[in-house]
Structure formats: C-alpha cells, structure tokens
Amino acid sequence: MKKIILRIIRLFIGYFVCAVGMVMTINANIGVSPWDVFHQGLGNIFNLPIGRASIIAGLIITIIDIFLGQNIGWGTIFNMIVIGIFVDFLMFNKLIPIFNSFFLSLLMMLLGMLVLGYGCYIYIGAGFGAGPRDGLMVALTKKTNKSVRFVKNSVEILATVVGYLLGGSVGIGTAIMSIAGGYFFQFAFKTVNFDVSQVEHRYISDDIRFIKERLISVKEDKA
C-alpha cells in the first residue's frame, strides 16, 4: 500500500511539473506549443480557456489511443483532467512570469520544453498509464519502431496544422517547438536513463481482471 501511495504522489507531481512546463511555453508569448495551438483551436470553437480545451483534446486523443491498441490506465484519465486544471490554476493566478525581452522569453520557452520532458518522465514512470498525448507517442513508437524524437515531432506538426485550421495562433516559438520538442524530450529521457517502452504499467483492464478474479474466488469459497 505504501508503494502504491508513493506512486500516486509521483503521478500528481509529474502532472504539476508538466503543467509548469506548458505554462512556461505559453507565457513565453512567442508562439504556443504545437498541442496548445490545437487546444486554442478547440477553445475558439467551444469558447473555453486553454486548460479546459486541453481536457476535451485529451478525451479525443484517448479514443484514438484505444483504437491504436494502447491500454488505458487510471493515470490516463487523471492526466486528461488534472493537467488542464493545473494549467488554468497557474495561468489565472499568474504564477509563471511573462517577459518583455525576446531573449528571456526564448530561454523560458526552451526551459519549458525541458521541464515538460522531465514531467513526462516523472508521471509515466509511476506506471499508471501514459497520458492521452504521451500514450499516443508511446503507441506510435512501439508500432513504427521509430525514435521518440521522430514520432513526437511528426505528431506535433500534425497537431499544429489542425489547430491552425481551427483558429489557433502560430508563431516562431511554435516552429521551434515543433522541430526541437522531440530533441528536448529525448535529451530529458536520456539524462535519467528512461526508456518509455520498458515501463510496466498497471492498466484499468488489470484492475477489472483482478476484481473479477477476487469475486470468483469469494464465490468458490462460499460454495
């Protein structure tokens, strides 16, 4: 039980670190990240703040993950909801600064990508299933045998195009993050010797199977 509690704490710490990284890239104000272009596009359609729009995006991507055969964990569900809440909390309370200097904004954006990479390492490593977007990255990495860098860059370029068509804003920072984002993630993972394909997750299907087995065991004992 203690081990599970520590893993849950790690999960939510990872979510918060991811949210900090996301808000750093947003507040850099030189073009939002590829996924946030998509979130902005959805926000324009449904008249929602970017955090809530990311929750809707997470639901859509989770459905795609299931279609690709990616198992869904409780971490996937929490990710879909909690990161968006953390993002709105950080932005509404202005806890991440906004700089007028282009150099400082660029530096914050680059650091934000690195923070986001470490946040993903923290929560994916908890073993409760990858989030919708990272689950898509994991699923495609396994299916294509391509590098994390290649898969992440390809997916985010697609998200940028779709988000732009939906009305999301694109800037020089978006181009930088589309190209360099995968490198930052791969660098973050390498510094902690983290291989996403080697993580053993506990999925919702495992819990359902466990409960069924326990119920069958109880019925047999009573018989």
UniProtKB/TrEMBL annotation:
The keyword Membrane applies. The keyword Flavoprotein does not apply. The chain crosses the membrane at residues 12-30, 50-69, 76-96, 102-124, 157-185. Pfam families: DUF6198. Keywords: Membrane, Transmembrane, Transmembrane helix. This is Membrane protein YczE.
